[in-house]
Every structure is written in structure tokens, then in C-alpha cells.
Design brief:
By secondary structure, the chain is an alpha/beta fold. It is 38% helix and 16% strand. It contains nine helices and seven strands. Strands 1-7-6-2-5-3-4 form a seven-stranded mixed sheet, with helices on both faces. Strand 6 and strand 7 form a beta hairpin. Helix 2 packs across helix 3. It is globular.
Length: 264
């Protein structure tokens, strides 16, 4: 990769070998810590493209990115789009993510879309993959799927890389020894320019694919005090709490939004 392209990569301005060391440290630590508490199963590994791609996953809790770091192949290098933060230097979690060089930050309050798009393009050009939590927030139910943003489809179309649906189940509650399933779906063919119509079509296909992947997921029983603390310690509920989020869902009669029929 040319030096000019390397300089466009997100994260700290350090040499490539330092970036590589930090990446491996982050991946190995994530795998060791999460596997000491949870049991993982990866289905459909053979469907993962060998090169650059956009991975879009559903989002049940704060541990989801670490679950992907624990089970996905170490190559291509894995990056995460987000978090949506104005300043990655604020807060211990943000500083850690910045140090590891695995995050592509997005500043929603500063009209950062163009720069974010360039950063994603640079990461894909380096031969890496970008994982995006398509729903943009966590939610309560294992089989729930909130509206998928068009960002994943747009980035895939703009860079001409495959769009891969990935379902994570078993993380809505974290109990010691709990089983987490990560299921990879068939890559969605991407071709043409990122027009409004093409982005909408790819997003609809992605939504349907994720709906199929999570359809048979069992709900996770509420764990004991330690498990509840582990789950909620870093969860960020837009409504304020899990109970409030559940109340909003139940009051609407549907899980936040109209459920998408995977069969079309």
C-alpha cells in the first residue's frame, strides 16, 4: 500500500509496524477475555470474502464488536465504523479504541460524512474489512431487527466490495458460559454506482438477509446479579434503560419499527 494511502488511515499517526502490533494485541486480548466468559460458535466462515468487504451486523449489546474480534479470521484486518463521537480523545474507551487503530470514527455533529467516506475507502483500499452495526443502536430482543441504515450499502457500492450480513445472537444478556452464535450470510453482490435506487435496493436485500439469519434465535434468560451487571455496565440505551426500551417497543405493538418479512 502506498505511503500516501497509509497516511489516510484512521487512528494514531504511527508507523505501519506499530499499527500491526497494536492490532494483534487488541485482537488477541479481545479473544482471550471474551472467550474466558462466553462460548462462541461461528457459522458460515467459508462465506467470508478473502479480501476487502463491508460486514454489517445486528446489535444487541456492547460486547458485539468484541465477539466479532474473537471469532472472525485475523486476516483481512478488521476495522469498525464508529463510534459516533465528536472527540475520540475523551473517555477511556474512546482513547483505547483510538490507540488500537481499529475504529473509524464519525463525527455526526460536524457534517463528517465526506471525511468518513474517505476514511472507509482508505481502509478498504488497504485490503481490510469494515464492520458496521447497521441498526446504529442496541435493542432488547434476539430476533428483533431495527431499520438498517443505508451507510453499509453506500460504502460497499462506492468501493465496489461485497456486502456481507453477519448475525450475532446470545449477547442480549451476558451470563458466564453463555453461548453466542455468530452466523455469516451469503455476500450480497454489489455492482454499479451508489445511486439512491441502488443503495435502497442493496439495503433492502441486506435487511432481508439479516432477518433470516436471526429468525430462529432463542431469547436469553435473565442472568444473575453478576451477569446483569456485566451486561448493563457499558450498554448505552437511548431511552435511558432496558426497561424503558422494552416499554417503547411494547407500546408500539412492534419491535421499534415495522418488522421486515425476510421472504419479501
Amino acid at each position: 500500500m502506498p505511503d500516501s494511502d497509509r497516511s489516510r488511515l484512521p487512528g494514531p499517526a504511527v508507523s505501519p509496524w506499530r499499527r500491526t502490533i497494536r492490532y494483534w494485541v487488541a485482537r488477541l486480548a479481545a479473544a482471550a477475555i471474551t472467550r474466558s466468559y462466553l462460548r462462541f460458535r461461528l457459522e458460515g466462515r467459508e462465506l467470508l470474502p478473502p479480501g476487502p468487504a463491508i460486514y454489517c451486523f445486528n446489535h444487541l449489546s456492547w460486547v458485539d464488536p468484541f465477539a466479532l474480534m474473537a471469532v472472525l479470521p485475523y486476516r483481512p484486518r478488521l476495522w469498525f465504523f464508529g463510534p459516533k463521537e465528536e472527540d475520540m480523545g475523551m473517555g477511556g474507551r474512546n482513547r483505547l479504541m483510538f490507540w488500537t487503530g481499529t475504529a473509524i470514527p464519525y463525527k455526526p455533529g460536524k457534517n463528517d460524512l465526506l471525511d468518513a467516506t474517505r476514511r472507509v475507502g482508505a481502509v478498504l483500499a488497504s485490503g481490510s474489512v469494515v464492520a458496521i452495526a447497521g441498526e446504529g443502536r442496541i435493542h432488547v430482543r434476539e430476533t428483533e431487527l431495527l431499520p438498517i441504515s443505508e451507510g453499509a450499502a453506500y460504502f460497499a457500492l462506492r468501493s465496489g466490495v461485497p456486502l456481507v450480513p453477519i448475525a450475532i445472537n446470545g449477547t442480549s444478556w451476558l451470563r458466564f458460559g453463555g453461548h453466542v452464535r455468530v452466523r455469516v450470510g451469503e455476500p450480497i453482490p454489489i455492482a454499479g454506482r451508489p445511486t439512491r435506487e441502488a443503495v435502497a435496493e442493496a439495503t433492502a436485500l441486506l435487511t432481508a438477509a439479516l432477518g433470516v439469519l436471526i429468525a430462529d434465535a432463542p431469547e436469553v434468560a435473565t442472568p444473575g446479579r453478576v451477569g446483569r451487571w456485566m451486561t448493563e455496565r457499558f450498554n448505552d440505551w437511548p431511552e435511558g434503560s432496558r426497561d424503558d426500551a422494552r416499554a417503547v417497543s411494547e407500546a408500539a405493538g412492534l419491535p421499534y419499527s415495522k418488522t421486515v418479512d425476510p421472504s419479501g
